[in-house]
Amino acid sequence: MAHQRFRQTIDSEEELREIVGFPSKLVKNKVISHLDSHCKEFIAKSPFLLISTADEEGFCDVSPRGDKPGFVYILDDKHLIIPERPGNRRIDSMRNILSNARIGLIFIIPGMEETLRVNGKATLVKDEDLLDKMKVNERQPLLAIGVEVEECFIHCAKAFKRSGLWDADSWPEKETLPSAAKILSAHSKIPNEDVADLLEESYTKRLY
């Protein structure tokens, strides 16, 4: 049952199609089931991606990953590996993968408005030989997320164009931005100064 705050909802794909319509031939035909040379080049130049997972009950999570371009290791046309660098130890994505292997990825290249979407099945990898290939500063990731590619396609630039994400003139002044330390302090009930110190220590000493 729809939440009472939403009085008019859509309950079928037929009703949805009446409003949205159908994809063009280009859109229907753009999906491939492997990483071709174009996809590999895109991934090699991407320093940032978003990982979407869900647990066995369908509770969803989206988590960012970022590093130098090329940090995602491509094994072959059907498999890639994402290193797990030090984080907050919540392991949301990895816990989800243990109960539900389905995964969605969006790769982003700074300044480029189109993105690359990859969908498939994930597994947690602890193969020392593979992890060794993803060392940074002589530090090997503790583990990695391996992905078997099932779908791969370019996503259009409309969201980036509408948002003006890469247009520096549209960015808010830094002093007007929300404070992560203040938000964390309010949510965790830990003094703001302590949170700010913890963040600084994490960002300067525990990236790898």
Descriptive terms for the model:
208 residues, alpha+beta, seven-stranded antiparallel beta sheet, 8 helices, 7 strands, globular
Descriptive account of the structure:
By secondary structure, the protein is α+β, with helices and mostly antiparallel strands. It contains eight helices and seven strands. The chain has helices spanning 13-20, 25-29, 37-44, 92-99, 128-132, 158-163, 180-188, 192-205; strands at residues 48-54, 60-66, 73-76, 79-83, 102-108, 115-125, 144-155. A seven-stranded antiparallel sheet has the order 2-1-5-6-7-4-3, covered by helices on one side. Strand 1 and strand 2 form a beta hairpin. Helix 7 packs across helix 8. The longest helix has 14 residues, at 192-205. The N and C termini lie far apart (45 Å). The model has no long low-confidence stretch (mean pLDDT 95).
